[in-house]
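Work Package 4 report. The design task specified in the project plan requires that, given a folded chain encoded as structure tokens, an amino acid be chosen for each position. We show below one input record used in the internal validation round.
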């Protein structure tokens, strides 16, 4: 489960937008909204790509993408 609030804070801190993430993953903005808001799960390769793009530590990545 994605921690929506934490994900959005990290985007803001890194100066990135949801549109940047959509472009990175070659997905529509609506699909990114659905994934961030837990309507659809992120795939593992998407998590890896986002983590590298945002330079997330393993701890940050896990807190965002594997929240309970």
């Amino acid at each position: 489960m994605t921690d929506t609030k934490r994900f959005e804070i990290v985007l803001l801190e890194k100066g990135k937008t949801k549109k940047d993430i959509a472009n990175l993953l070659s997905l529509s903005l609506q699909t990114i909204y659905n994934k961030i808001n837990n309507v659809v799960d992120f795939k593992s390769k998407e998590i890896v790509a986002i983590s590298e793009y945002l330079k997330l530590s393993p701890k940050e990545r896990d807190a965002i993408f594997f929240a309970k």
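Residues 14 and 54 are 7 Å apart (CA to CA). Validation will be extended to a larger panel in the next phase.
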